[in-house]
Amino acid sequence: MRVLITGGTGHIGRATTQRFLQNGWDVRIVDLSPDFEMPGVEYAQCDILDYASLLEHMRGCDSVIHLAAIRTPFLAPGHTIFQVNAAGTFNVFEAAAACGIKRVVQASSINAIGAFYNTVEIHPQYFPIDEEHPAFTTDPYSFSKQIDEDIGAYYWRREGISSVALRFPGVYASELITSESYRERIMTARKLLDELVNKSEAEQQAVIANIRQQVLDYRAHRPFEFRPEQSPNMLRGLYDDPLFGIYIADRFNFWALLDERDAAQSLEKGLTAAYEGAHPLFINDSSNAFLYDSRTLVRLFFPEVTHIKTDLSGSSALLSIQRARKLIGFEPEYSVQNKA
User: How far apart are CA 284 and CA 23, in angstroms?
Assistant: First the structure.
């Protein structure tokens, strides 16, 4: 199989390329970097907004992995994010149609429904959240990912291109998840949650109400959106207060995470599984990042959500991967459970 990977120089792209090379596939990568080298890979500099260039590099390929995007809202202004992510995705599918390619796998995000980058509160209707759940996006990056999924559906209707839009959470290198600093943060969070659970219900509610208001006040200023003077490391300070960090980051990400090698696995299976149509799929670990009791997390941080749609026992993920299991055979091979 000859595969084109857009945006393949990032860590997900590299992990995916290594997996594809082990399969004996031919891999062609296009990205913005003028000088990228990886043994066994054909590389070309290409901007996905340059349709003619993209079309030329796509010729001769059997399928496409589309990873190229502006990956967070604080890297560029909203109009640029939407142009690159949405118009770029349209170009990828349009070029695939022109080349007769019938399988595209694109990287979406859990933010396609509204998550970490939201400017306001999020209101899940039930847990675990699945692909039937309505979206509540309020930031340009998340909205662009929502539109990317619609583009996949459009090209299924128009051109018969089958695709999956993989809703990745934070994707981590294995060495980060097993690092001492990561372990320390998780142990601190678990201890803090245990202390909260041991308080009276009234005390719990008071603590959560206070931290919730702090988070919403912070989000009201749209801190994750682009400002020229803003440091790329702005997120580091969010964890100075552990409970604030849990509420603003982990809660708004539904405690989801994924090993980069499982991201690569899902991209491979998105290409090879037998299916038709365009499908958004949650792709994440089967457990929550804290390995904490999931029903307790819901009770503490989403007390208004009383509808538990399917099993949520133990530390089960709050984002369902059942559809990914059924459609493409995805199952985490590098679960955080195995690294605890």
Answer: 23
